[in-house]
């Protein structure tokens, strides 16, 4: 089990209870409800996460609202096609995905949070996505 970790401050950045996330070109703007800050940020070694290299955290589905750029978000699915991975079709940046292991939450790209430098998180735990919980008997 990973240790439970919460970040309400990351370097110079305070995480607001309502915090915005945006893609690189600024076309996609998403509002997140983060009353407890950034909870349990992690990296993952699965086939898609190891390629994109993003640090993720999760929120309940109702706590993520797309404010702008719905039409720019492109859906990518693979394997069991359970998880829904979204990225901006203009700049290619991954913003969030609906998780396969817990479809009740969205994982979001911590590096897209406005004002946040994810390198200031220090060491981030790695979750074992190669051996996915949904693939275990
Ligand atoms: Zn973009």
Through-space gap between termini: 19 Å
Spans where pLDDT lies below 50 across 5 or more residues: none
Bound molecules: zinc ion
CATH class placement: Mainly Beta
Number of domains: 1
Give the overall average pLDDT: 91
Strand order of the largest sheet: 8-13-12-11-10
- Topology order in helix (H) and strand (E) letters: EEEEEEEHEEEEEEE
- Predict the CATH topology: Metal Binding Protein, Guanine Nucleotide Exchange Factor, Chain A
Domain CENP-V/GFA: 19-137
Family: Belongs to the Gfa family.
InterPro entries: CENP-V-like (IPR052355), CENP-V/GFA (IPR006913), Mss4-like_sf (IPR011057)
GO molecular function: carbon-sulfur lyase activity; metal ion binding
Task: Describe the 3D structure.
With 137 residues, this protein is mainly beta. It has one domain: Metal Binding Protein, Guanine Nucleotide Exchange Factor, Chain A. The protein is 3% helix and 37% strand. The chain is built from one helix and 14 strands. Strands 8-13-12-11-10 form a five-stranded antiparallel β-sheet, with no helix packed on it. Strands 4-5-9 form a three-stranded antiparallel β-sheet, with no helix packed on it. β10 and β11 form a beta hairpin. The longest helix has 4 residues. It is globular, with a radius of gyration of 14 Å. The model has no long low-confidence stretch (mean pLDDT 91). It binds zinc ion. Zinc ion (ZN) binds next to loops. The site of zinc ion has 9 residues, from loops. GO terms for molecular function: carbon-sulfur lyase activity; metal ion binding. It comes from Chitinivorax tropicus.
């Amino acid at each position: 089990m990973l240790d439970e970790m919460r970040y309400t401050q990351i370097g110079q950045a305070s995480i607001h209870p309502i915090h915005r996330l945006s893609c690189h070109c600024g076309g996609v703007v998403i509002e997140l409800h983060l009353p407890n800050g950034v909870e349990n940020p992690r990296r993952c070694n699965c086939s898609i996460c190891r390629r994109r290299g993003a640090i993720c955290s999760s929120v309940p589905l109702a706590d993520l609202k797309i404010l702008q750029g719905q039409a720019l978000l492109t859906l990518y699915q693979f394997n069991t096609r359970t998880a829904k991975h979204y990225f901006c079709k203009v700049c290619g940046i991954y913003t969030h995905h609906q998780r396969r292991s817990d479809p009740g939450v969205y994982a979001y790209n911590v590096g897209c949070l406005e004002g946040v430098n994810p390198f200031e998180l220090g060491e981030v735990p790695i979750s074992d996505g190669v051996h996915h919980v949904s693939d275990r008997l």
